[in-house]
């Protein structure tokens, strides 16, 4: 595997909480311009692993590099500025702003104008065209003036993706993007993720196996905090250890 193909690499990631090992010696290589899924039964350590990669948690041991640069120990904000953005964490949606205004605030953050709410209308208006394009990209044009609080659940997810895209990340980490969505919304968000991944890399934690099968280039399966298997869905889904991990915990 050529080194330039790898955008995010973790080696020997371990996280202990007062004697409990939540993640144990996890190594991961995510190829540029792919959709990589992190799956596993409940309690497998997926979210902990995600938190380690974005440094919302500090690893007990192990190293992480992004674009060939070590990011172990960097702050979540610094990591986001480097181009590794985590959706549904940093994309805080303001419930009483419109869809367009939410995306505009995210664009301001990218420009370092987050706290300049007293800026002239002219500056803010110049961001409107960009904001409306992003709103359109995620299929929310019809909702651009709706308050975020009034959006249906699946559309809120699309808005969260739009506000993350406003940061122009090279790589997006999506934490269970399909959680709580109905079938129609799942299709819509899956299509959105596919579109988003055309010119960037996506790493996602997901429970929905049919979504993972359809979307992912590579799947890493975690069980009890360790990597159980890795590869394309066709290979991973037939792995006896993976089948046992899912069946054994009552998750088919």
Task: Tell me what the structure shows.
This protein has 252 residues and is of the alpha/beta class. It folds into 2 domains: 1-90 and 170-252, P-loop containing nucleotide triphosphate hydrolases (Rossmann fold, 3-Layer(aba) Sandwich), CATH 3.40.50.300; 91-166, no CATH class. The chain has 9 helices and 10 strands. It has helices spanning 46-53, 76-81, 99-111, 121-137, 153-165, 183-196, 209-215, 233-236, 240-248; strands at 6-17, 20-31, 35-39, 61-66, 69-70, 84-87, 171-175, 201-205, 218-223, 226-231. The protein has a 6-stranded mixed sheet, with helices on both faces. Strands 2-1-4-5 form a 4-stranded antiparallel sheet, covered by helices on one side. α3 (99-111) crosses α4, α3 packs parallel to α5 (153-165) and α5 runs parallel beside α6. The longest helix has 17 residues, at 121-137. The mean pLDDT is 87.
Q: Can you identify the CATH superfamily of the largest domain?
A: P-loop containing nucleotide triphosphate hydrolases
Average pLDDT, rounded to a whole number, is: 87
Q: The CATH topology of the largest domain, please? A: Rossmann fold
CATH architecture classification name of the largest domain: 3-Layer(aba) Sandwich
Fraction in helix: 25-40%
Spatial order of the strands in the main sheet?
6-7-8-3-9-10
CATH class of the largest domain: Alpha Beta
Spans of 5+ residues with little confidence (pLDDT < 50)?
none
Major sheet: 6 strands, mixed
- Give the percentage of residues in beta strands: 25-35%
Outline type: globular
How are helices and strands ordered from N to C?
Answer: EEEHEEHEHHHEHEHEEHH
Q: Name the structural class.
A: alpha/beta
User: How many structural domains can be distinguished in the coordinates?
Assistant: 2
How far apart lie the N and C ends? 32 Å
* SS element count, helices: 9
What's the total number of strands? 10
């Amino acid at each position: 595997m050529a080194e330039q193909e790898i955008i995010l690499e973790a080696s020997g990631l371990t996280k202990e909480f007062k004697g409990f090992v939540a993640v144990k010696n996890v190594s991961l290589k995510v190829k540029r311009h792919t959709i990589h899924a992190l799956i596993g039964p409940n309690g497998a350590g997926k979210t902990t692993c995600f938190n380690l990669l974005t440094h919302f948690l500090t690893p007990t041991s192990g190293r992480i590099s992004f674009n060939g640069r070590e990011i172990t120990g960097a702050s979540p904000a610094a990591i986001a500025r480097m181009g590794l953005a985590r959706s549904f964490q940093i994309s805080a949606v303001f419930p009483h702003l419109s869809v367009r205004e939410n995306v505009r605030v995210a664009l301001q953050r990218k420009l370092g104008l987050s706290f300049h709410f007293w800026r002239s209308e002219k500056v803010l208006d110049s961001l409107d065209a960009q904001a409306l394009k992003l709103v359109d990209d995620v299929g929310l044009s019809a909702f651009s003036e709706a308050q975020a609080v009034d959006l249906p659940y699946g559309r809120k997810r699309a808005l969260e993706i739009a506000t993350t895209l406003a940061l122009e990340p090279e790589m997006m980490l999506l934490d269970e993007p399909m959680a709580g969505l109905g079938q129609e919304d799942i299709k819509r968000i899956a299509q959105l993720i596919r579109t988003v991944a055309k010119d960037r890399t996506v790493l996602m934690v997901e429970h929905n196996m049919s979504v993972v099968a359809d979307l992912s280039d590579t799947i890493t399966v975690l069980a009890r905090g360790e990597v159980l298997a890795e590869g394309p869905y066709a290979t991973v889904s037939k792995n006896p250890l993976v089948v046992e991990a899912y069946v054994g915990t009552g998750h088919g």
